Amino acid sequence: MTTRTERRVGRTGGLIGDSPLRPDGIPKLKGEFEYAQDLTAAEMLWGATLRSPYAHARIVSIDLAPALAVGGVHAVLTADDVPGRGTFGLEQPDQPVLAGDYVNYWGEPVVVVAAEDQDTARRAAAAVVVEYEVLEPLVDPEEADRRDETFRRMKIRRGDQDITGDVIVDGYYEVGMQDQAPLGTEAGLAIPDGHGGVDLYATSQFVHVDHEQVVASLGLTSDQVRSHPTGIGGAFGAREDVNLHIHLCLLALHTSKPVKMVYHRSESFTGHVHRHPARMWYRHHADMDGNLLRVEAKVLVDGGAYASTTGAVLANACYFAVGPYRCDSVTVDGVGTRTNNPPCGAMRGFGAVQVCFAHETQMDRLAAALDMDSLDLRRRNALATGDAIPTTGQIIETPLPMTEVIDSLVAMPMPDATISDSPLSLPGGTGLTTEPTDVSRGVGYALGIKNLGFSEGFDDYAQARVRLTAEGATVETAAIEVGQGLVTVLAQIARSALGVSRATVRNVDTSMIDSAGSTSASRQTQLSGGATLEASTRLRARILHAYNGDDLDDDGVWSEGRLVTPMAEITEGSWEETATFRHPATTEPDENGQGVIHADFAVAGHRAVVDVDPELGLVRVVRVDTAQDVGKALNPQSVRGQIEGGIMQGVGLAIMEELIVEDGIIRNPNFTDYLLPTILDAPEVEALLIEKEGSWGPYGAKGVGEPPIISSAAAVAAAIRDATGRPIDRIPVRPQDIALL
Amino acid sequence: MTEPVMLTVNGIDYRVNVDMGRNLLSVLRNELGLTGTKEGCDDSECGACMVLLDGQPVNSCSYLALQAQGRSVTTVEGLTPADGLHPLQRSLLEQGGVQCGFCTPGIIMSARALLDRNPSPSEEEIRIGLSGNLCRCTGYAKILAAVAQTASDG
After folding, report:
1. Where are the alpha helices (DSSP H) in A499-583?
2. Higher local confidence (pLDDT), A9 or A61
3. Residues in contact with A545: Cβ distance below 8 Å, sequence separation at least 6, in sequence order
């Protein structure tokens, strides 16, 4: 039965399952939306950062005098000027706010400057004279492993460790260092409050954790710092760690003036963490029927100089090392190394991406060794609800439609087999390097699985407050909108659950509400959405109870079809509810990596079709089809937006995006040399949303942000392998991986 | 060394004193307060700073303010009608072509220049017309659909 509210609101769209226009769309389209880059304040100074030119060195001396002599400079600060703990870090506070005795990576901040304009600040920072004693950097992660320079080791042992299969497949795989490359660089503004405290407005995915780190590293009290959500030009993991946040607060408190910083793109490449490069050694055992008997893996991810989230990324890589397959005998050893390479941390997919490339290549090789169709092999071993996660032994309790994903993917139509003779449709594009007769077409499949929300016993929650006033419903939250459409979907949830047609989302700072947690791990729709649903539901119940009604809509409270109290009268009172939503509790792993480690899982599959010029090593991705387990698509347009964007980043990882690091130094920190897919590289994408409700998210929704990138890169690599017959055991696939003998 | 520069931006004449080396993007954002135009790379690669110069799209990060003297500059603020949205803005909104939105003003300017010279572009022509604009969020599908919708709506 359609309720009054559904009939009313349904006309304008905006309930669960609709795709209403995003509320921040118009300001963004008009250029009026305020990003961190656009913030300004009276008497504002500009900050700049001097960074280490070496991957490893001892700081012998720092001469600030030349910088202080530059006109318009207000502050030139070093590690000696940092009060408090002086260090920060998401998993352990191991990174200095400013380097003291040593620099441990290329680009590590050493000095910060505040001056009257950006050019002056940058000039003054460059004028500082630092004398370094250059040291030998440790850049080989395997050497770091041998020296036990590590952030974390993982040991997973499940089942009989002595099983041997009839068929054994070995492989070694590498994944390069990818950058999140959000289009907006790091930016922010800190404003001193005149009483020793500071208001921070800076690019972030998690303002409460920024707040915590500013407070601890600068020796402030919690109530002295307010971290405010602000407009952000993308994130993808790059904004989970602090970077300029503490520097801004330090400079603002020191100068007693507002201070703004905007990283240049070249600085952004050293100013945030990257996707961990990985090396992976695998051995798969199966019986002659293709039943997976045993998987052995060693997974190495290089964390670089400081911990960031290396421990959690490594853990994720290890927990999903087998992929979405049943297997009762598993050995995984993992190591997250500490080197003098650039620090690595969160990027969309968070460890699951790297191992997916390895386990999916292994499955293809295993199928070849068994002379079996690779999809039949996957289908035979596919995980389902009630099965155990092969690494941790955790029983899957929510819907996990892996078989439906495979079947849907196979049923999707293939593109026209004719190779177009339009230059833009050929590998090499407008370079006019390739003739249609030179092109080999390949098709590849890959499946992926990832956890949703934070794991390993972390107390993962989100708070939201819902108010009802004459203006409608307002959802207050500190959850960060990074572009994914959280502001749209939280309003949809409030409308649906409360019953009114007007709902807006208002971001509030850390002093006004408890944490919403991080906008990462595909978690905000489920967590902040869950809190919004709970607060809205409770508020509706309270209002109905107060006015003895059975329905609530824009007109007011109804009882048995009669309006009993008009909305104007209701909103004379103060109506608000605050709810804190937690996902099911998880546990820390035992000594064998076993336990209820994760709150929920999502699966997806990708089929890539590529055209390759095997002589030149050039690739064009023609099409990517996907089927994805979404639970319930609360906003189908936004879900598809996540899928299309995530696949594009997967295509980038497969064939073009890699930070080239030599002796610890990034050689391509700019968009000329770090290649991102353009619209000419964009394949056709078709997405099938598989809705199986039963997860704990609001209305059964699962997080959807990360699955699109987990297996898309692996599918493209598989398609290149299919087209060329080359091993393709590293991504990104380079021309020499295809063309060289 | 600063120099007085006369700029015509969105039909309004401005006189600003700027360093001869200043790029147009910096003057638009910091001197004229037109922050709709974005800096994504400072390298002519991403197109977030795209403006129209006498109707032609240019990366304003790589164009001196001095060079724009005597020419007509249009930014996203100048393209937006006083009462509502330009058809390109409307299509991008409806199709879901905006996520973080940082690339959006630049995309709009490139698309506008494309449709001005070719009101009925093929899909391939749209791709070529937008090939100087990076978008990291959308995967481009909905942007492509939005420009095609604008063209077909005339």
Report:
1. 524-546, 567-570
2. A61
3. none
Separation between Cα atoms, residue A259 and residue A686, nearest integer Å: 46
User: Which residues of A are less than 8 Å from B135 in CB distance?
Assistant: 183, 679
CATH 3.30.365.10 fits A2-33+461-582, yes or no: yes
Predicted confidence band of residue A693 (pLDDT cuts 50, 70, 90) = confident
- State the pLDDT confidence band at A666, using cuts at 50, 70 and 90: very high
Nearest to A28 among B98, B131, B136 (CB): B98
- Return the pLDDT at A2: 46
- Which pLDDT does position A6 carry in this prediction? 53
Q: Which pLDDT does position A193 carry in this prediction?
A: 98
Peptide bond into A732 cis (omega under 30): yes
CATH number of B2-79: 3.10.20.30
The residues with which B17 forms a beta bridge, in sequence order, are B4
- Distance from the Cα of A345 to chain B's closest Cα (Å) equals 19
Q: What is the pLDDT of residue A422?
A: 86
ipTM of the complex as predicted: 0.99
A20 touches chain B (CB under 8 A): no
Using a CB-CB distance cutoff of 8 angstroms, which residues of chain B are in contact with residue A38?
35
Q: Which residues are within 8 A (CB) of A98 and not within 5 positions of it... i.e. 6 or more apart?
A: A77, A78, A79, A81, A82, A109, A110, A111, A112, A247
| Residue A10 pLDDT exceeds 50 | no
Chain B neighbors of A122, CB-CB under 8 A: none
> What are the start-end ranges of the H helices in A153-289?
207-218, 244-255, 265-271
Instruction: Give the number of other CB atoms < 10 A from CB of residue A159.
Output: 16
3-state secondary structure of A26: helix
Q: Cβ(A617)–Cβ(A670) under 8 Å?
A: no
| Domain boundaries along the sequence of chain B | 2-79, 87-153
Residue of A516, A741, A530 lying closest to A632 (CA atoms): A530
Q: Is A498 left (phi over 0), alpha (psi -120 to 50) or beta?
A: alpha
Domain ranges of chain A: 2-33+461-582, 395-458+598-741
Mutant choice from A117, A183, A232, A638 vs B, greatest count of B C-beta within 10 A: A183
Alpha helices by DSSP H, listed for A333-398, are 352-370, 374-381
Model pLDDT, residue A430: 80
Searching chain A, which residue's CA lies closest to the CA of residue B104?
A: A29
- Tens digits of residue pLDDT in A451-478: 999 999 999 999 999 999 999 999 999 9
pLDDT band at A4 (very low <50, low <70, confident <90, very high): low
CATH architecture, domain defined by B87-153: Orthogonal Bundle (1.10)
Instruction: Please judge whether B137 and A638 are an interchain contact, meaning their C-beta atoms are less than 8 angstroms apart.
Output: no
Q: Residue A7: is its pLDDT beyond 70?
A: no
Q: What's the pLDDT at A419?
A: 86
Q: Is A423 on the interface with B (CB under 8 A)?
A: no
Is residue A74 within 8 A of residue A257, CB to CB? The reply is: yes
What 3-state class would DSSP assign to A499?
coil
- The answer regarding whether domain A395-458+598-741 maps to CATH 3.30.365.10 reads yes
Q: Which of A21, A33, A682 sits opposite B101 (nearest CB)?
A: A33
Mean pLDDT of B1-21: 93
Q: Report whether pLDDT(A73) > 70.
A: yes
Q: Does residue B77 sit in helix, strand or coil?
A: helix
Question: Could you tell me if A52 and A107 are in contact, meaning their C-beta atoms sit under 8 angstroms apart?
Answer: yes
